[in-house]
Amino acid sequence: MGPLTDGSAAAPDRGLLDGGTSSRPVIEVEALNVTYGDFRAVKDLSFQVRRGELYALLGTNGAGKTSALEVIEGHRRASSGTVRVFGKSPTDRAAVRPRMGIMLQESGFAADLTVAESVRLIGRLTGRSDTVKRVLGVVDLTSKTNTRVAQLSGGEKRRLDFATAVFGRPELIILDEPTTGLDIQSRDALWEAVDQLREDGSTVILTTHYLEEAQQRADRIGLMHQGTFWHQGTVAELTRTLPASIQFTLPVGAPAPPLDTTPADEGAQIIETYELQRELKRLLDWAEVNGVELVDLSAAPTRLDDVFRAIDTAPEHS
Ligand SMILES: Nc1ncnc2c1ncn2[C@@H]1O[C@H](COP(=O)(O)OP(=O)(O)OP(=O)(O)O)[C@@H](O)[C@H]1O
């Protein structure tokens, strides 16, 4: 993908568009419920996304991420609760759509439109101004300008989806599983484009099942399970909810270490700790003083994957 700021369309003046309310969160979700018949897909969900933030809505399959996003996008009405985007109802299309770019999980482009026609159509529908040339350059689809959507590969369709979301460099970009089906080059390019938009001050909310992407990029994460938050916070706050681990094997005849250990496979021992650095130092100091070799020593910080795995094993969250 090419540069996002090539000067062919002026970036919106964030200060003027704010109308003097820049301290107000871009997205405000308060006690949101989404029900399908008797089924509560989203249960009393409350969170805010601040200006310039990258907020990742993560969770197990069927957790309610897309249902919540659809209300924020203005594509679905809340069963109860309130959602405000730029202080307005997301169904107030005239106020919100020019400022919000959306990449849906599945593209809704007409198969017989060309790539350029699809981008132009979105431009007209959203009221944002930009050029087809610029956005197709961003997603490296220039060579497909006159190709019909039906003839694009799956990854090319995702890139077209992204192109329409960033058309006009909107202040808020909603990305529902943006990198699913993209090769590594296209993923890197997409994130580079997102980074450039954020440098311009754009706010991003996304869902993804690629936890490493969220771990690397999200300012805050809302981790959903069964319609509600399991945890919410920064990556550091989430990983702090589980212990890190130190693993080693003691030689035969070595004294017992000064920390509680649990036996692991093949005679190894594990120390689980919320104080990795301190406990590791304690163990190493003890080993040195006692002349003990800690065989196959490893220390593993808690990862977002671990927090995710803990969801299935924990009792149901009400
Ligand atoms: N139109 C619908 N009618 C009935 N049930 C629905 C509808 N849409 C979603 N659901 C149900 O609501 C729940 C939440 O779905 P949703 O798509 O919001 O989850 P998600 O977190 O985005 O899941 P995934 O990670 O699998 O994409 C699921 O149990 C799903 O089966």
From TrEMBL:
Keyword ATP-binding on entry: yes
Keyword Transport: yes
A Pfam cross-reference name: ABC_tran
Compartment(s) where it occurs, according to its Swiss-Prot or TrEMBL record: Cell membrane
Record membrane topology: Peripheral membrane protein
Chief place where the protein resides: membrane
Residue ranges occupied by any ABC transporter domain in the UniProt entry: 27-251
Annotated GO MF terms: ATP binding
CDD domains documented for this protein: ABC_DR_subfamily_A
Swiss-Prot/TrEMBL keywords: Antibiotic resistance, ATP-binding, Nucleotide-binding, Transport
UniProt cross-references to PANTHER family, sorted A to Z: ABC TRANSPORTER ATP-BINDING PROTEIN
This protein's name: ABC transporter ATP-binding protein
Organism: Occultella gossypii
